[in-house]
Amino acid sequence: MQSVTIAPRGPFSLAAARDFAGGFPAGIGGGLASATNLVLAFPLEPRRTTGGSAGSSPIADALPWRWSAIVELRQAADDAPVEARISSGGDRDAALDQALRSVSLDHDGTGWPAVGERDPVIGQLQHEHRFLRPVCFYSAYEAATSFVIGQRIARTQAARIKARLSATFGDRLELDGQTFDAFPRPERLLEVDERVGLNPEKIVRLHGLARAALDGRLATARLRALPPAEALDALRELRGVGDFTAQGVLLRGCGLTDVLPVDVLSDEVLGSTYGESTDPSAVDAITDRWRPYRTWATVLLRVGWSRRQPGPVSYRRDRSSGASGGRGPARRDVRPTT
How far apart (Å, rounded) are the C-alpha atoms in residues 202 and 337? Predict the structure, then answer.
């Protein structure tokens, strides 16, 4: 067990991250959100890369996923240092990096309050939600598999299926006498069949994602390094990944800070929050104030809006991924920083 202290750059609240993780029914993956800490259990992604020329995006080696990891995060108070305990048979520094990315602690947030100063709506939400940063999946692989499992079924059902997959095929990890099941490593996901409660097409899709993770096409570092449009194109080549799922994998799996998921900024959310027209020029005027944290502001806006709703919020499903592999026609893409 290795212990590390992390000093957040900019305001950070682990309590806000716990609230976010605990309020996400399908879960970001294995682990536990308690009143005092956040326990993260996940397959450890190989991070060795091979190069290209200077400035080119790294391409991951085809490497096995040999280990899973467990990381416990604690914070005595908002903005205080974060204490991390890491246990893994593999690279513990890589495990810590993966855990920090999942709560957006890998980014410098010192400029995040300035967004709220420029935009009072975001500023109010920042104070209401303790400068919440996005809580992400542990890797692009875990994001992609989670989205595919959840397509066209209720979140509670998706959560049960993920829990069953983890208990049956995932690595069992222990922390302070308590056991946690990580989501299956890609090698184990290839063993999944219809007995877990998934239809044959979803199993084919999951097997394809497992192979993509093994051969480097789903490598988080590679996708983060690509221009967003290229990363989305690469993701849409995977069976079962349409526009909505590709955006989810890029933003919630890779943890980008300044990419705008246009589909999430619906007329309902923006119009009811800002009380303004949501034509493209008005949206651009609003979101330009959020740079260079447009992803963070979008997540915060959505969280604030959904928590004001009187009943459960219905999130749009990815309808662009059909049974034949589902790349579907492109609709509206994310907007990268220019």
Answer: 34
Per-residue tokens: 105: 């602690």
CA distance 165 to 145: 11
Say how far apart CA 313 and CA 31 lie, in whole Å: 24
Model confidence over 282-319: pLDDT tens digits?
A: 888 899 999 999 999 999 998 898 888 776 555 444 33
Nearest 5°: CA angle at 304, between 259 and 289? 40
Distant-in-sequence, close-in-space partners of 110: CB < 8 Å, separation ≥ 6: 9, 10
Mean pLDDT of 27-47: 87
Q: In whole angstroms, what is the distance from residue 214 CA to residue 227 CA? A: 22
The amino acid at 197: G
pTM: 0.87
Q: Domains for the chain: give ranges and CATH numbers.
A: 2-45+69-308 (1.10.340.30)
Q: Please tell me the total number of residues recorded for the chain in this structure.
A: 338
The candidate with the shortest Cα–Cα distance to 78, out of 128, 14, 35, is 14
Rg of the chain's alpha carbons, rounded to an integer? 19
Residue entry with tokens 């959840």: 150
H-helix segments, the chain: 14-22, 92-102, 112-118, 120-128, 140-150, 155-169, 186-189, 200-214, 220-225, 228-236, 243-248, 254, 267-274, 280-287, 294-308
